[in-house]
Write a structure and sequence with these properties.
Distance between the termini of chain A: 59 Å
Strand order of the largest sheet of chain A: 1-2
CATH class of the largest domain in chain B: Mainly Alpha
CATH superfamily of the largest domain in chain B: MetI-like
CATH architecture of the largest domain in chain A: Orthogonal Bundle
Shape of chain B: flat
Strand content of chain A: under 5%
CATH superfamily of the largest domain in chain A: MetI-like
Oligomer: heterodimer
Largest sheet of chain B: 3 strands, antiparallel
CATH topology of the largest domain in chain B: MetI-like fold
Number of helices of chain A: 15
Chain lengths: 462, 425
Amino acid sequence: MQTSNLLPLILVLAVVAYGLAYMRSRAVAAPLGGIRNLKALPFYYAARAALWCAIPALIVLAVWAGFEGKVIQGIVIASLPQDTWPESAGQASLILSQISNVAAGSLDPEFVPEHIAGAASLLEAMQDKSGNFKAILVVLIAVLGATFAWTRVAPHINARKNVETTLRRIFFVCAALAVLTTAGIVFSVFLETLRFFDRVPITEFLFGTSWSPQTALRIDQIGSEGAFGVIPLFTGTLLISAIALLVAVPVGLLSAIYLSEYASKRMRSTIKPVLEMLAGIPTVVYGFFAALTVAPFIRDLAEIVGLEASSQSALAAGLVMGIMIVPFVSSLSDDVINAVPQTMRDGSLALGATQSETMKKVIFPAALPGIIGGILLAASRAIGETMIVVMAAGLAANLTANPLDSVTTVTVQIATLLVGDQEFDSAKTLSAFALGMLLFIVTLLLNVIALKIVRKYREQYD
Amino acid sequence: MTDQRSQAEIVRKSLKRRYRTERRFRLYGILAIFIALASLFILFADIISKGHTGFVKTTITLEVTLDSGMMYLDDPTDKDQWSSADFKAPIIAALQAQVPEAASAAEKRELGRFLGTFADSEIRDLLTKNPELLNTTQTIEFPAHDRVSVYVKHADNPRYSIKLSEQQQRWVDELLQKGIIDTSFNDVLFSRGDSREPANAGVLGAIVGSLLTMLVTLAISFPVGISAAVYLEEFAPQNKLTDFIEVNINNLAAVPSIIFGLLGLAVFINLFGMPRSVPVVGGLVLALMTLPTIIISSRAAIKSVPPSIREAAEGVGASKMQVVLHHVVPLAMPGMLTGSIIGMAQALGETAPLLLIGMVAFIVDVPDGLFSSATVLPVQIYLWASSSEQGFVELASAAIMVLLTFMIIMNALAIWLRKRLERRW
């Protein structure tokens, strides 16, 4: 039976368990003189039965569904005659897809070698068996759980405490899921990165100045090695992020200052949400805008001035990215400017300083750490941004500081290396994970530093 | 005395300059706001100007005589005859009747190129469904080829290059005048999946894919997000573990979205062996991505419930869990819903992680389940924007308008909820 059918089935069983336990608790209570003689309300006995029915079954189902595919694949591969065992992971996946195509009926068994056809029928049988076994096991566990809870409907047992403890644990697991996600990111990406460093030395990756991750079709082909030096990707990322910050910081900061110090309340309440809209627009829309409108415009403009601009210039991607992060800078600066105590403002104005002098000489220096924290957060956002650069920046890893040239970034390379068909286990595919690791570490560092600065700054005025 | 007076004099003299600086500073602020607002305006104007033509389709309506001799076809239900039959011949004949000038075989072939690539299969499907129509004359509407469509819609736009010869342009003008070639509302856009041919491509497949993906995301991130928020706000003891979880959540909120794509690829696809490009995996990845947003906003909502409510409930003997589930969570629900809707809107517009888990495949069929191959709206926009055929640019802009409409609706809903349900204590 399919997992998607089992889920509603478990739900139905849980509802039945709930109803039965509810009735039983009333039945138990009746001879004692009503439910006031139970330790908990009937609702809690019923809820406990439902939890006992559903939770163990769901856990078993999740584990089974998560690993059944891999286990069956392993058994099927092991069943092949020894001389046809795959030598590499790539070959294994090829054979497996052949087998599953035959099993699914999209490939005629007559066209494949006999051992594949045999394996396909084994796969089908295994899948059937696994599905049936899973369904029986899950239903059995659900019924057993419900029965156990049913037997524990007794006046002296406090079901409310049980239910509350269980719920609390569920809440804790949900909160811990965030940690699990981080762990998942670190371990999955880290393991693949280690495998990558088996092939390419870490020093070459970090300090190499050329990036061309092509792997050759033939071993003797020229340039078959591929080059995995991350420096040109990093300079490209930094160039585009720097352009973005050059746009976003002045625009964001000045508009935050104007809105918080000069604007009337009405102007503030209308303009702020409109500015925030910039942050809500999907990045793919910015990418479209950068690639199809801004980039050609810049190229034409450069032509008029007599400069040569690439049709995928870093400038176009950077400008549009800058517009995108304006609301980040402005709302973060707004927060820190408002956090500066009013007394400092009043003191400065009382001494006869104009508003702009107060701003520049008193508030801005006081707010500076917080603003820098905000800028760092915006920078981490710019470095990790993908769609704008995928669509508007190039693929060529040029080591250049000319904003009219085409550069590529870490995120562009991750996306292009992993989109479409991948060769398993090649240095090319693995390098994307190494880039991901690098990106993760850099953005994490920026965030940690930024949050620390912002927090310290807040404490100063609290 | 003189000293004070001279100082006052200095101040007075510098006043003019200081006021000028003040005005300039104000101007910078206004300029900054203007730049930001102007960019937003230009962005919208650009997309609307590029995309409004995507809602218009160019059609060729012809009276076609489905002559069996001309098509070399006796029995439309016989599949063996299909390969040798010429379904396009009657269309070209009908077109040629309208343009008598095109008489030679080469010219007729050129006329045939006015039609979309799938015109012949349209005839085939019609005949297979209704074999009795063979040898009758039917009025049929065909989508025009991209070249014709670009000429009809964008003849004056220098951004588009017209790929029709002078003669062909004349023919198209003639057909336009006769009303054979016409433009109308592009219903194809909302009723089909992707296609290689702009005239046959629609966003329905992507919209359904997005809905299925969002369904999975919502089903996971909403309950898990508010449970986590409840735990952290109400139950978590003040210890190292809680601190660690909190720091973790704050950091996760700032992890670049493409990293979540790597996680999905490595864990869900490679480790658990889930299929590629299905809404379930996409939804899982987006759920992990939106969780921090939902947790953070839900916590803020829980925090805003005044302690007096909790104390009152505890005072009448409610247990901690009863206080939370009966009073705090229902009162915080509007805020939680608002945060979740905003998180979902973010997830709806997300593209990068979905590229990595294979949701960029070219998929013609509208997905029919959580485990069928699908693409989503933003990815469809990306695919069309990077396509080389001219007709796809306006479709991409039209799809952007559809996407933005969805997002505006979601955000408006969030604002409405906040205004309507949120209580000030």
